[in-house]
Amino acid sequence: MMKLYLCLSSLILSLPLTAQENKISLDFSNVINTKDALKGINISTFFHFTEHLSGGVEVNRFFGKKILRKDVEVENKIEEIELSAWDFDCNFHYSFKVSKHLKAYPIWGFSHTTEIEKRTTENHENSTHFWSYNTGLGFMYHFGKISPHIEYLFTWGKTNQEFLLVGFSYEINLSHH
104 exposed, middle or buried (CB, 10 Å; 0-12, 13-18, 19+)? Predict the structure, then answer.
């Protein structure tokens, strides 16, 4: 499955060569996974294929947080674990104007997640890997090259999750004229 992600990411990275808009945007955001209140950062690159359609690759890093969970090995026992995660996403946006500077965009794509659980009482680490389908909605306010944005994302898969992302985009025009 990782090969599929790498192939699709490579395809998206090569698409700017034929893009009509000749623009890319670099995005930096704070992100929260509402399921476990994991906080992290999002770094992404989007290629603007047309005035409305863009697609890109995203990396989310969720930093470790101590949480209480049911012990899977001992019934009726609660254990403390440190949970962290990495997400690698391939998402597409179709933006449309809501007002002069405000754009809305539905989000769709897929992600690969690696959740890392460390038991705090032992030196034991467990990793879980899974794929999800992404859907959501975002809003962006255009100030020129720098634009703040907010997104809500719901992922469908082995573990359904919700994310809230707040950050800014920096747009780069690749045209030479």
Answer: middle
- Tell me if 20 sits within 8 A of 152, measured CB to CB: no
Domain 21-161 in CATH 2.40.160.20? The answer is yes
Angstrom distance (rounded) from CA 53 to CA 72: 44
Q: Domain spans of the chain?
A: 21-161
Check whether 82 has a pLDDT greater than 90.
no
In this prediction, residue 10 carries a pLDDT of: 53
